[in-house]
Amino acid sequence: MKDQIYAHPVDAIARFSFDAQVAAVFPDMIRRSVPGYGTIIDMIGVLAARYARPGTHLYDLGASLGAATLAMAHLLPHRDCQLVAVDNSSAMIERARQLLAVEAPDIPVQLRCEDVRDTVLESASVAVLNFTLQFLPVADRDALIQRIARAQQPGDILILSEKIRFPDAEEDALQQALHHAFKRNNGYSDLEISQKRTALENVLIPETLAEHEQRLAEAGYRSVHVWFRCFNFMSLVAVR
Ligand code: GEK
Question: Which sequence spans correspond to the domains of the chain?
Fold first, then answer.
């Protein structure tokens, strides 16, 4: 289904939330809004296949419809790993349940309708935060990253994808303009782009690459690699 949520003028734009309306159009919305989304999903599968250890858990935190879970499921080399997909939107989890039943009926996935800040984490050889951390209050981010790190052993990974901001105002403006050009090229009108931007204010709070790197280092990740970047979107693999 095509995302037309912000296609018509709205008087008072409500804060963006991951409700049933968003869940229904989510695959179209995220593909047309996040540069490289398809590549990032595919490569999460490749990364997970390399780092998953037998008998451990693979967590997709803020899983939405489970695209990253599915990518990991298809390439997972060990049958005794447990895939866990967590999202606090019941609309997302319900649709994810239906999609996974069709796309990966033979691969058991534990679906949890929970806040990622509360979900229990254990022996996490692979943890994925694919455009989720950016929706948490900044004050809650250190604690979540530290909790993930504590559930991991040396050599385990956290894949962290985020929209970022740049410390240099001119570069930040350029990267934002390029992102908007990407959205226009994908069929979003200027009205849709500007209304969505208003809805996301104080909901999606981007940080700089340096802020992410510092948080990961403080949590105990010994190396952090930028493996994808396009405009103001990037994905890191942090090795515990
Ligand atoms: C993908 N990873 O397709 N607890 C649990 N879930 C949360 C929380 C929270 N505190 N806050 C936000 N979410 C997905 C895409 S979308 C990114 C992730 C985007 C969930 C929220 O309900 C939504 O499903 C997801 O995080 C963010 O690979 O829409 O830009």
Answer: 1-240
- Ligand 1 atom with the shortest distance to the CA of 130: 2
Beta sheet of 124-130, edge-to-edge order: 109-112, 82-86, 57-61, 124-130, 157-163, 233-239, 223-230
- Tens digits of per-residue pLDDT, 10-39? 888 989 999 999 999 999 999 999 999 999
CATH architecture under which domain 1-240 falls: 3-Layer(aba) Sandwich (3.40)
What's the chain's length in residues?
240
Indicate whether residue 151 lines ligand 1 (CB < 6 A). no
Report the 10 Å Cβ neighbour count for 55. Answer: 11
pLDDT value at position 10?
A: 87
What is the distance between the alpha carbons of residues 150 and 140, in angstroms, rounded to a whole number?
Answer: 16
Distance 89 CA to ligand 1 centre (A): 8
Residue 133 has a pLDDT of 98
Average pLDDT along the chain: 96
Give me the amino acid identity at 70.
L
**Percent of the chain scored above 90 by pLDDT?**
96
- Residue 86's CB is within 10 A of a number of other CB atoms, namely 23
- The region of weakest confidence among 4-13, 55-64, 91-100 is 4-13
Q: Is 220 left (phi over 0), alpha (psi -120 to 50) or beta?
A: left
| C-beta of 227 in contact with ligand 1 (< 6 A) | no
132-174 pLDDT tens trace = 999 999 999 999 999 999 999 999 999 999 999 999 999 999 9
Rounded Cα distance between 121 and 183, Å, is 36
